[in-house]
Amino acid sequence: MNCCLNLLDLENNKNIITTQNKTHQKIVIFQRIKAKKLSIMQTTKQNSTIASAVVGVPTNDISTFYKNLHSKFNQTRQRTLSLCQDLQPEDFVVQPMADVSPTKWHLAHTTWFFETFLLVPYLKNYKVFQEEYNYLFNSYYETVGKRVLRTDRGNLTRPTTEEIYEYRKYVDNSLSLFFEELIKNNEKNNFDSETEAEIKKRLFIGLNHEEQHQELLVTDIKYVLGNNPLFPAVKMPIEDFTIFKSKKEVENIEDKKEDFIKIKEGIYQIGFQSEDKEEFYFDNEKGVHRIFVEEFEISKNLVTNREYLEFIEAGGYQNFNFWLAEGWDFVNKNKLKAPLYWFEANENWFYYDFNQKENGLQKLDLDAPLCHVSFYEAEAYSQFRNMRLPTEHEWEIANEFFEWGKRWEWTRSAYQPYPNFEKDEGALGEYNGKFMINQLVLRGSSEATAPNHSRYSYRNFFHADKRWQYTGIRLVK
Ligand SMILES: [Fe+2]
């Protein structure tokens, strides 16, 4: 997410050839990315904002730009509500574990975000809907003040869900007024250019923040319902997720069914780079830099339920040899023997999911990509197969050669700042940087991710024990 002028002027030299191996055909890809300008680091260092390159919009198109953004804003806010269309009033309130936030909290918090970071500072004569909401719906922004403990979000029976829907309407209407102000500003010049750039940046962050919470809303309510012994069948309109097709076919090969793609050793560029000034990205993706990787082979496919079941049936959860020490403690302490939402009955495996015809519990689809595993389980499975998880760099380098978008893919990379990472000033500087400790990077996106939300450089992150996101496994050898 950045206003940066990310004109890296790169030239990608990619040569693709194939070779024969004695046992089976191998695909060898030589990918050499050459930076024409050695001033990359200096260029990216100037990119100190989080939001994407909205500054570059020509002034005469500014009305159209804001009209389009307003329309996108309305669609995004509406999509959040559509995710709740099949929920019952009681579903909106509970918080069965600390990681899960109640649905109504998501609805309010995303609204609070727009109110706090846009309307309060920039809309003239704006009156906050309810002063106390700052305490109730601030998530983690120390700059903004004290807040309800995360673990207590499910104790808030008031405000009611209905009142939160009113809050959303109030803020949406105020934002419509604000968009009108921004369009008028083109003629009246109410905001100076620096202020307007900051407003644009915050609008983009607000939209992407709402999209992130759409996914959290889905995963959180799945945890609520998937742990209910009634396993209610619920419709969740998330079919609009994006599949990122492989962009590059490996040429001149006879066997296109080869499961692993070989990437040659070399120096590669990592980090968000685009000549599209309007493309959005987060601060944790910026800072293009070069890294060296050894040759590796990455699977074209995600691990399936059928493959993971082999691990279970081979006693994978009972064999310490596959597990990291922390992972072994984790599975034993929690008596785990399968991924989250898997249930065994009469020697058959069942799985809880949305959009089922009758009961939310269905027979396990063996061909579906595995979902809802922790990093510990992903790592143990890779050991079982005598392989490993990719690093986040390997994933990014290879992503154009495989399809992705169904599962967030665990990597073996710690969530660290890229070289030249800079926190934004003020409260929004708390968005990503302060979480760069004790977490692992996940790449890709999932069936629960809002459409077109992710990209090849997107860095998601979770602690190693988390299983309630749509997480899966891709192997490297
Ligand atoms: Fe948030």
From TrEMBL:
<dbReference type="GO" id="GO:0052699">
    <property type="term" value="P:ergothioneine biosynthetic process"/>
</dbReference>
<dbReference type="InterPro" id="IPR042095">
    <property type="entry name" value="SUMF_sf"/>
</dbReference>
<dbReference type="InterPro" id="IPR005532">
    <property type="entry name" value="SUMF_dom"/>
</dbReference>
<dbReference type="InterPro" id="IPR017806">
    <property type="entry name" value="EgtB"/>
</dbReference>
<keyword id="KW-0560">Oxidoreductase</keyword>
<feature type="domain" description="DinB-like">
    <location>
        <begin position="73"/>
        <end position="216"/>
    </location>
</feature>
<protein>
    <submittedName>
        <fullName>TIGR03440 family protein</fullName>
    </submittedName>
</protein>
<feature type="domain" description="Sulfatase-modifying factor enzyme-like">
    <location>
        <begin position="258"/>
        <end position="399"/>
    </location>
</feature>
<dbReference type="InterPro" id="IPR034660">
    <property type="entry name" value="DinB/YfiT-like"/>
</dbReference>
<dbReference type="InterPro" id="IPR016187">
    <property type="entry name" value="CTDL_fold"/>
</dbReference>
<dbReference type="InterPro" id="IPR051043">
    <property type="entry name" value="Sulfatase_Mod_Factor_Kinase"/>
</dbReference>
<keyword id="KW-0408">Iron</keyword>
<dbReference type="Pfam" id="PF03781">
    <property type="entry name" value="FGE-sulfatase"/>
</dbReference>
<dbReference type="InterPro" id="IPR024775">
    <property type="entry name" value="DinB-like"/>
</dbReference>
<dbReference type="Pfam" id="PF12867">
    <property type="entry name" value="DinB_2"/>
</dbReference>
<comment type="pathway">
    <text>Amino-acid biosynthesis; ergothioneine biosynthesis.</text>
</comment>
